[in-house]
Design brief:
Blueprint lengths: L2 H12 L12 H10 L6 E3 L4 E3 L5 E4 L4 H8 L9 E6 L2 E4 L8 H5 L4 E3 L10 E5 L3 H11 L4 E5 L3 E5 L5 H12 L7 E4 L5 H6 L2 E5 L5 H6 L2 E3 L6 H9 L2
Parallel strand pairs: 5-6, 10-11, 11-12
Antiparallel strand pairs: 1-2, 2-3, 4-5, 4-7, 7-9, 8-9
Length: 239
């Protein structure tokens, strides 16, 4: 995190503004940033699947039933050109836990286990790893229209259940804190930020590479973080 952004956010918190984090990352990856920003409020990980309080207790879960995940994965289990992981908080369930692609999970002391259909687990999200992810996105959109999909370039596609998005999580957190929608500001740039930017009273699109749908719903467009866009907006409007 650029030091100027950190300083601006901490100054805004000192002024009484409420600061929290909503991220598509798993909790283990997000916690260093949550700690750095000294977030003492409910926050969301795995998009909107889990909202935790300051002590790390889960306040809200919106998970994908195992039957839905099994149905989603059924036709790809024997297609070794498409890898996948079913995520439960910081744990991953995959085709082959011993494959070298999962070494990073082991290195971070997180759990990775063999995915098995029909065991009744509920998942935060399903992530596909495939060069033909754009084609896969269209196939899943047609076959499983009830899911939310986040396509990242040509390599990754995340599929989440309805309601497990950042916008829904932000609405829940704001209601929990008694903050009216009109007073909520959200910063984002990716496809998973669209519902959050759309819901917030002020949606701020960040950077020249912001997703077109983020730009379409945003009220403001600022420069990339490393170019001072987020810090500039906070300094001008909140300090």
């Amino acid at each position: 995190m650029p030091p100027r952004i950190h300083e601006a956010i901490m100054a805004a918190a000192d002024r009484g503004h409420l600061v929290t984090v909503l991220t598509g990352r798993q909790f283990g990856s997000a916690k260093p940033y949550i700690d750095q920003l000294e977030v003492k409020l409910p926050h969301s990980t795995n998009h909107g699947a889990r909202v935790r309080d300051a002590e790390g207790q889960v306040l809200r879960r919106v998970l994908m039933p195992g039957t839905d995940a099994d149905r989603l994965l059924a036709e790809y289990l024997d297609d070794h050109d498409i890898e996948f992981s079913c995520v439960i908080d910081d744990a991953l369930y995959v085709r082959d836990p011993s494959h070298e692609r999962w070494n990073w999970v082991h290195a971070r002391s997180r759990s990775v286990a063999h995915y098995r259909a029909g065991v009744g687990l509920e998942y935060d999200k399903v992530v596909f790893h495939a060069q033909r992810s754009r084609e896969l996105d269209q196939l899943i959109a047609e076959a499983h229209p009830g899911f939310l999909r986040y396509l990242w370039g040509d390599g990754y596609l995340e599929v989440v259940p309805t309601g497990a998005d950042k916008g829904s999580a932000l609405a829940y957190i704001a209601d929990l804190l008694g903050v009216p929608r009109s007073e909520v500001v959200a910063f984002g740039d990716g496809t998973n930020d669209v519902t959050m930017i759309e819901w917030a009273g002020t949606g701020v699109a960040v950077g020249e590479n912001a997703h077109p749908d983020v730009l379409r719903h945003a009220d403001v467009h600022v420069a990339a973080p490393e170019d001072g866009g987020v810090a500039d907006w906070i300094e001008r409007n909140l300090l």
